Amino acid sequence: MINEKLKKIELFDTTLRDGTQGEGVNLSVDDKIRIAKKLDDFGINIIEGGWPGSNPRDQEFFKRTEELNLQQAQICAFGSTARWPDKIGSDSNLNALLEANTPIITIFGKTWQLHSEKGLGLEEDENAKLIEKSVAFLVKASKRVIFDAEHFFDGYKASPSFALKMLKAAQNGGADTLVLCDTNGGSLPGFVQEVTQIVSQNFETRIGVHVHNDGGLATANTLEAVMAGATHVQGTINGVGERCGNANLGTIIPNLILKMNLKTHSEIDLKKLTPLTHFVYELMNLHPDDQAPYVGKSAFAHKGGIHVSAVMKDSNMYEHIDPKKVGSHQRVLVSDLSGQSNIRFKADELNVELNGDKQLTKDLVNQIKSLEHEGYQFEGAEASFELILQERKGNFTPFFEVLDSRVNVNYDKKGHSQADAMLKVKVDGEIEHTAADGNGPVNALNNAIKKALIRFFPSLKDVKLTDYKVRVLNEQEGTSAKVRVLIESSDGKDSWSTIGVSENIIEASWEALRDSFNYRLFKIQSLDKETILDEV
Q1: For the domain that residue 49 is a member of, what is the CATH number?
Q2: In terms of domains, do 247 and 360 share one?
Q3: 198-251, pLDDT tens digit by residue?
C-alpha cells in the first residue's frame, strides 16, 4: 500500500551536477543551458545546476540562468554544510551558494557516523550543530533548503540513532525537504523501503530519495522509497553519474505515472521523454543505450517470428505499454530468426505491396536467413534490406556498375599513409573513369565512387559517410577472417544504414558503400531511373 502521506511527486533533476561526474561526461555552459531549457519544457520541477563554489564553469552557469526564461522549473545550487560549526557566517562554500542567487539550495551533510568522526573529526553533537546552523544560515537568507543526507542508508545501518539525529538537526534548522541518499548505491530495495517508511512516519518534513546504481537497483530503490512515503525524487536523465550512475529519471518517471498512477507537481508530457533522453545523449556525446527501458531503440523492437505474428494481431501481447505514450514507436527486426510475419510487417512499414504473395515472402525469409548465416545482419542495416525487398519485387535495379577498381596505400619514411582509389564506372551505357585520394583506403574509395557518380547524379553531392563500423566475425582465422562493415550515411536530413561482408575489408566496405548510394538514388527518384539522368 502507498503511504497515505503521499502527495504529488516533486521531480528533481541533477543531470547538470551529479550527472557530469560520470566518466566521459563533459558539458559546456552552453550545453547546460540547452539541457535546462529542455528539462523545463518536459516538466521537471527543480534543476540542480551545479556547485558554484567548486569551479568557474558552474559559476558562469548560474550567472547566465536569467537567459533560460523558465516556464515552471526552478534552478537549484548545490554545496555542502560549513566546515566548522563556529564559522558558519564566514564559510566560503555557503556564501558562494548565496551568491549563485537561486531560490533553492541543496546542501549535503554527514549522516554516517564513520564520515563525521573520521572525515570531519567531529563528535556527534558537533556534527548535528554543524548541520542545523548551516541550514539555518541559508534559510535566514530566504532560501528554500533541501538537505541531502549523505550516505544515509549506510549511516542508518551503522547507527539508526545517529542518522535520525542528523535529520532532526536539518529539520530544526528549517530544511523543508530531507533527502535520504544511498550514496554508495549498494542498498537493497527492502531495506530502502523499511527505512524510508520509518523516517516518513517520524518526520513531518517532506521526504526525498537520491540513490546511485552500483547494485543495479537504483530504479527499484527509488520506487520503493516512493511507496514508503517519499514525495521528492532525485535522479538524472539516462542515469548518467559517477561510477555506475544515478537513478535514471527516464525509467523512473514513466513508472511513477503509467504504472503507479501518481501525479507530479507539474504536468509531464511523456511523449517528449524519448526525444529528451536522446537530446541529452547527443550533447554529452554518448552512445544511446539501445536497451534502455521505455526510451531505448530496442525497447519496442521485435525479432522472433512468433512474437511478430502476435504483435501484428494485438501489440499488448508483447508490449507492456503503447510506445507512443513515451514518444517511441514499434519496430520489427529482420534476421535469421525472422518468420514471414517479420517480412510482411517490414513490407507494410516500407509501403511495399506484397499482394499476399506467400511464395515471395517465403523466398525472402530464406534469402535473409542464408545471408545472415554468411555474416550479414540486417537489424542495423535496414536500407540494404529494403533494396533486397525492392529488387525481389522488381522495383529496383542498381543505378550503376563498377567495371574495375583499384585501391593503393603508400607510406612515406615517417610512416604516414596516403591512399588513392581508381574506378571505372558504367552508368546507362556511359563509362566514367576517375580517381581520388583519401586518408585511408575506405575514405579514398568513398571519395572516388562519389566523384565518379556526381556527374550522372548531382543529388549525391550531399551524401556523407557519418559512421563506419567493422566487426571481425571469425577471429580464430586471424588476418583471413571475414569482416562485417556497417556504415551510416546522411544527406543532412535523413540517414540510412547499409552493410557489406567479405574476407576483404575493402570489398566489404565497397558493398556497403554501393548499397548506400543506390539506396539514396532509389529513394529520391523512386523507380524512374530516367528521371535521375535528366538531372544532368
Answers
A1: 3.20.20.70
A2: no
A3: 999 999 999 999 999 999 999 999 999 999 999 999 999 999 999 999 999 999
pLDDT value of residue 527:
42
What is the Cα–Cα distance from 239 to 222, expressed in whole angstroms? 12
How many whole angstroms separate alpha carbon 228 and alpha carbon 216? 20
Which residues sit opposite 76 in a β-bridge?
A: 48, 104
Q: What is the Cα–Cα distance from 50 to 423, expressed in whole angstroms?
A: 55
Domain containing 322: what range?
301-374
| Chain centre to alpha carbon of residue 3 | 32
Q: Are residues 243 and 323 in the same domain?
A: no
Q: Are residues 318 and 257 in the same domain?
A: no
Cα distances (angstroms) measured from residue 174 to each of 132, 138, 265, 484, 504: 8, 9, 22, 62, 70
Indicate whether 513 belongs to any domain.
no
- Left (φ > 0), alpha (ψ -120 to 50) or beta: where does 143 sit? beta
Number of domains making up the chain: 2
Of 342, 374, 406, the position where a domain reaches its end is 374
Residues 6+ apart with CB under 8 A from 266: 11, 43, 44, 45, 72, 73
DSSP element (H, E) containing 450: helix 441-454
Return the C-alpha cell found at 432.
Answer: 566514367
The cell numbers describing 199, all together, are 523516517
Residue closest to 81 by CA, chosen among 117, 105, 46: 105
223 and 310 in a single domain? The answer is no
Q: Is residue 391 part of a domain?
A: no
Question: Which of 208-212, 223-227, 333-337, 356-360 has the weakest average pLDDT?
Answer: 333-337
Name the domain boundary from 311, 345, 374: 374
How many other CB atoms are found less than 10 A from the CB of residue 293? 16
- Do residues 33 and 68 touch, judged by C-beta distance below 8 A? yes
Using an 8 Å Cβ cutoff, are 33 and 61 in contact? yes
Together in a domain, 170 and 314: no
Q: What percent of the chain has pLDDT over 70?
A: 83
Query: Which residues touch 532 (CB under 8 Å, ≥6 apart)?
Result: 399, 456, 457, 459, 521, 524, 525
Task: For residue 348, tell me if it sits in a domain.
Answer: yes
Same domain, 272 and 146: yes
CA atoms of 365 and 357, how far apart (whole Å): 13
Q: Which helix (H) or strand (E) holds 193?
A: helix 189-202
CB 192 within 8 A of CB 213: no
Q: Is 457 helix (H, G, I), strand (E, B) or coil?
A: coil
Q: Are residues 134 and 258 in the same domain?
A: yes
* Beta bridge mates, 435: 422
Residue 291 lies in a domain: no
Q: Which three cell numbers stand for residue 70?
A: 523558465
Question: Could you give the 3-state DSSP secondary structure of residue 155?
Answer: helix
Percent of the residues in the chain that have a pLDDT greater than 90, as a whole number: 46
With vertex at residue 336, the alpha carbon angle to CA 331 and CA 337, rounded to the nearest 5 degrees, is 60
Same domain, 180 and 65: yes
What is the C-alpha separation between 103 and 283, in angstroms, rounded?
27
